[in-house]
Specification:
The chain has about 210 residues and is of the alpha+beta class. The protein has one domain. The chain has helices at about 1-20, 185-205, and strands at about 30-35, 55, 60, 70, 80-85, 90, 100, 105-120, 120-135, 145-160, 165-175, 180-185. It is globular, with a radius of gyration of 24 Å. Residues about 1-20 and about 195-208 have low confidence and may be disordered.
Length: about 210
């Protein structure tokens, strides 16, 4: 009997030790960022403001050197150092945006939207992918899941079409609402607009 009781205690202790340390935390909100991992990058070099599909060397993204630190519930756990997306970010077909990790959880994409573009030599495009998120074993299973989520992709192309494109993503849950798209004019266009307005002002002064 003593041996059996000792074995039961050891087994219980082993189960407690094997359980995720933060499995009691119910996920409610949080964000984390990621960049293409070493050896990964955008191979597409066409105009970032008009392109909708971006090929990558591979689908590995690193969370160890993000553009922003994790927030809220993601600060209470150790998120994986990498996540794996598809080898192509195809905003026209929603291909390559989902991820699955036993601890972190699963994201399933459902729609996307182009948020903003900036043409010219310092071109950029910002896309948002909406979907649903089911937390993994890092969080308590007693939450109400799945929850809404979004991935925001920032694509920057210094030098204009033909130049390399740098990418980063930020994951949010709940999802960030999609605002109306914004297209910023080129600096040259702004200069022409300013000159035209100045000319109109000069003509008005002469008429007076």
């Amino acid at each position: 009997m003593l041996k059996q009781a000792t074995f039961a205690l050891l087994a219980s202790a082993a189960l407690v030790a094997a359980a995720p340390a933060n499995a009691t935390i119910v996920f409610t909100t949080g964000s984390f960022a990621a960049n293409p991992a070493n050896g990964n990058g955008v191979t597409t070099t066409t105009d970032v403001t008009t392109t909708t599909a971006f090929a990558l060397t591979n689908g590995t993204w690193s969370t160890t050197q993000p553009v922003a630190p994790p927030s809220n519930n993601f600060t209470t756990v150790t998120i994986p150092t990498t996540i794996t997306l598809g080898s192509t970010l195809d905003f026209g077909a929603l291909a390559g945006f989902g991820f699955t990790d036993p601890g972190l959880g699963t994201f399933v994409a459902s729609s996307d939207a182009l948020l903003a573009t900036v043409p010219g030599l310092n071109a950029s495009a910002t896309w948002e992918v909406l979907g649903s998120y089911t937390p993994g074993t890092l969080f308590s299973a007693s939450g109400t899941y799945p929850v809404s989520a979004s991935e925001t992709f920032s694509l920057d192309q210094t030098g204009g079409p033909g130049s390399q494109i740098a990418a980063s993503l930020t994951f949010f849950s709940p999802a960030i609402p999609v605002p109306p798209p914004v297209t910023s004019p080129e600096p040259a266009s702004l200069s022409l607009m300013g000159a035209a307005l100045a000319g109109l002002g000069f003509m008005r002064r002469r008429r007076k």
